[in-house]
Amino acid sequence: MRQPQLLPESLPASDIDAFVATLGSHRDRAMVLAMLLGGLRSAEARGLLLADVDMGRRRLRVIGKGGKERYVPVDAAFFTEVAAYLRLERPAGLSTPQCFVVLRGPTTGAPVSEAGLRSLFRRHRELSGSIRVRPHRLRHTYGTELASAGIDLLALRALMGHASPETTARYVHLSLEQLAAEYGAARASLAGARR
């Protein structure tokens, strides 16, 4: 028997705000904002290269699942944090092309690892009390918010790098009010067409 697919879980703004408020570095805020404002998967955020960050056009070149390339526009808040991270925090003279690197300790300058990102999220969930904040939920929040704002589903699919339209369609959560409004508009259109 097939398991029912759960709707992607998005996060309330209060949880996100509390979580982001505990982040103590521009690097950490930039990584979180890449997922929240750009819809990147955690591996995509960690895998960003310096050359993938286009400050002038305010977009990211993302290599997604299966090596598929996409370009994603991202809000200015992300680029503000990235610029501050590159100017103030990223160690000078590194040879790694990765954008996000470890800032202190024995692995300083190495790319941020999956375990490192997991640890960062665990620590800041505890500090903020926002226990539901996880990398993929930030991505879900991005998709859900854009779908709720009425973005075309083909555009959302391209932005999120989904292979299947069914995956993207799961982001459309209509409230009872939205359903009633859509139904009312459709009925009014039909009534007008019959006159």
TrEMBL record:
The keyword Protein transport does not apply. It comes from Mycobacterium kansasii. Residues 6-184 form the Tyr recombinase domain. Keywords: DNA recombination. This is Tyr recombinase domain-containing protein. PANTHER family: PHAGE INTEGRASE-RELATED (PTHR30349), PROPHAGE INTEGRASE INTD-RELATED (PTHR30349:SF64). One of its GO terms (molecular function) is DNA binding. GO terms for biological process: DNA integration; DNA recombination. The keyword DNA-binding does not apply. Gene3D superfamilies: Intergrase catalytic core.
